[in-house]
Amino acid sequence: VRSMPKEEKEYELIQQLDEDVMASLHELNKSATTLPSPITPRVKVFGSSLEGFEDVPSGLLEKEMESTEEGCRDGYAKTKKVLGAGVYGTVYEVEKKIHEKWYKRRQRQRGFALKIPKGDRGIRSTQKEMAVLDDVGTCKGVLSMIDKSPCVDGKKMPNSYVTKMYAGDLHKWSKVTPIMTRVHCYQTVFSQVAAGLTCMHEKGWIHNDVKAANILYEGLDDKGCPEGLVLADFGISYKIGSPISPFNEEDYMSAFYIVESLFYGMKDPLKIVRSFELENGGAMLLPTAIPKIDLCSAAFMIYRIWNYKEPALQKLMGAGTCGPMGPGRTQLFP
Ligand SMILES: Nc1ncnc2c1ncn2[C@@H]1O[C@H](COP(=O)(O)OP(=O)(O)OP(=O)(O)O)[C@@H](O)[C@H]1O
């Protein structure tokens, strides 16, 4: 018996993904229909800066850097290892200092990560993240916050938070993992991502920045598949039903993809754009935070990681639905 050539086997495996993808997306969609009713949109005076839609009170921001000078004891110590650096923050490995009375000496527990914001925008973003994590941090499949405003190397860090340290993110994993292994891991990866998203949605939030680099994993199972997956990076998450500020470069430069039509102002098949009544009686068309935004992003991530181009998924992602983000399409809101 002739053994199946590698390409044919790959093709067959990828074909198999079709049913799995659609079933999982359908599950996610179903959960989206049983969500809590949308909150009353928080909108500012017509024509004001759209930064106003942020959920985080900006009064807290000014204090940030100075108050890190405040002395404190115990807490955490930074190691030399940087786990990741984004536009608005850096993630460091830290160790927890444990006072061991019995031996009268300090011991350190390894395996923690500390996110420190960069600049005002980064501060707003981590404050937002902490507020979101207060709500969704108990979800399986979502990063949980171990400490807020921790003491690090003797300084209070009011706008930072500590989480468990993870082995890596899905983006890096996909870059070093051959297609055959990736294909075998599809189901376990996607079901873990779906679990995290479903729980966030049930608690009334959309992640809004679903991409492989924002999904962390604890380790690899015996087949080389990532396990213990969690969604991370909640800097641009929104309450379901709230208006999303129109796309500006600052918000979406690092975002991977979002509904394409919003940028071209043509079609809106997912009904993401809605008219919002503003305080002064005016109305404005704004995109609404709905779970389908995450769904599109998840579908697009699958396409990127698994090079999956079946027609059913292509339809979901095609023109007028979900598409890749990029700096070139930031100001084209209808
Ligand atoms: N708890 C963690 N354990 C291990 N690595 C982590 C952890 N948190 C973040 N990282 C790494 O740091 C990277 C950046 O983290 P995160 O996305 O939270 O920061 P960010 O500044 O918002 O980044 P971005 O600009 O990509 O949105 C991640 O892609 C991941 O590789």
Automatic annotation (TrEMBL):
Keywords: ATP-binding, Nucleotide-binding, Signal. InterPro entries: Kinase-like_dom_sf, Prot_kinase_dom, Protein_kinase_ATP_BS. It holds the Pfam family Pkinase. SMART domains: S_TKc. Residues 77-334 form the Protein kinase domain. ATP binds at residue 115. This is Protein kinase domain-containing protein.
